[in-house]
Amino acid sequence: MTETRRICLLPGDGIGPEITAEAVKVLRVIGEREVMTFEFNEALLGGIAIDETGTPLPEETLAKAHAADAVLLAAIGGPKWDTTDPDKPRPEQGLLGIRKGLGLYANLRPVKIFDALRDASSLKPEFLEGVDMLIVRELTGGLYFGSRARETDVPGAATGGGEGMRAYDTMEYREYEIERIVRVAFDAARTRGKLVHSVDKANVLESSRLWREVAHRVAQEYPDVEVVDQLVDNTAMQLIRRPAQFDVIVTENMFGDILSDEASMLTGSLGMLASASLGDGTALYEPSHGSAPDIAGQRVANPLAMLLSVELMLRYSFDMHAAADRLAAAIEAVLAEGWRTRDIADTSTLPQKMVGTSAMGDLVVEELG
Ligand code: IPM
Ligand code: MG
Questions:
Q1: How many whole angstroms from 257 Cα to the centroid of ligand 1?
Q2: How far is the CA of 332 from the centre of ligand 1 (A)?
């Protein structure tokens, strides 16, 4: 009898459904080979959920996600649902809501350079030597979850005398939230380069000073791992100046959001950055890129960040390391043969080696044999 793993699929918006189809294709082939049945259960999240149910995260979606062995999310959002009206639903609330709902406090974003893509990077190849880092982003706290409001009719005194509306967001962290995410980073560093950069803004923010204190306390339990405090603005600069200095970066939600987009350009494209969101229950895997509404439906989106997210799923949720290694090798081989989606193409890419979303998926399937 074959074993079964239940995967909740959240294709979402924009290019989401196109790259989800490639993930399913690849998982089916892996399943046949590994004598593992992957069972897919699709649910609504984001803009499409707003259109069909009026809310970006229907209860049914959260229930399906909880019931699954793993969740694979593609991307959400698009101009159709963009609004600054605080009373209107937004797709991003669905994404933040499912992260919170599943308790996914640790977001791992590996930044790895593919040899074949060195020329696609925004940095000169010599700066990429030795780049292999893991960004550990806190995912259920901080500025994205703190209390916020917009107030109308604020009396002049409360706004320093000026008239008009007032809006605020709060960056708040509790000790246990910092402790558990920092621990994830130190545990990861132990299996890698044994170096943690704890990134904060302790020269200004109180929440960062607490972050730093807790990070140091946790660090004492890991004498074999070196810890470096780095201010977030400096990190933004160092990522471009000397990216090879990093092994594991651990940081607050918004800092991690920004720094991981920046770091993705080292790999050549945001279309190459996978992520795993882990907590105490069902884990969720998603590419770090967005729904790319500008190219949605054109079948040109790069499915590789999604397939690399599948690789992380095989490792972290299913303990299928041999299959994960084979998938990683297949992706590497396809790139080494020169195949490119347009986001990772460079001037030397032959026109006949430029492929669309599903051809890229087929090439990976072929490599998997
Ligand atoms: C990401 C995205 C999301 C985030 C957005 C879409 C809410 O940018 O996963 O990095 O900020 O977390
Ligand atoms: Mg982001």
A1: 6
A2: 26
Helix/strand/coil for 140: coil
Boundary residue ending a domain (226, 250, 267): 267
List, chain by chain if needed, residues with CB within 6 Å of any ligand 1 atom.
77, 92, 95, 257, 288, 290
One domain for residues 6 and 61: yes
Q: Among 95-99, 113-117, 204-208, 327-331, where is mean pLDDT lowest?
A: 113-117
pLDDT of residue 208: 98
| Closest ligand 1 atom number to CA of residue 261 | 10
Helices (H), 204-356: 206-219, 232-241, 253-264, 304-316, 321-336
Closest ligand to residue 47's CA:
1
How many angstroms separate the alpha carbon of residue 204 from the centre of ligand 1?
24
- Whether 247 contacts 111, CB under 8 Å: no
Looking at residue 44, its amino acid is: L
Structurally, the chain folds into a number of domains equal to 2
Give the domain extent around 65: 1-121+271-369
User: Could you say which ligand is closest to the alpha carbon of residue 305?
Assistant: 1
- Domain match, 3 and 27 both: yes
- The residue whose CA has the least distance to atom 4 of ligand 1 is 257
Question: What Rg, from alpha-carbon coordinates, does the chain have?
Answer: 21
The CATH number for 55's domain is 3.40.718.10
From the candidates 13, 105, 173, 201, give the one annotated as an active-site residue: 201
Q: pLDDT digits over 151-201, tens only? A: 876 655 555 566 678 899 999 999 999 999 999 999 999 999 999 999 999
pLDDT at 240 over 70: yes
Q: Nearest residue CA, atom 8 of ligand 1?
A: 257
State the Cα–Cα distance between residues 309 and 275, nearest whole angstrom: 6
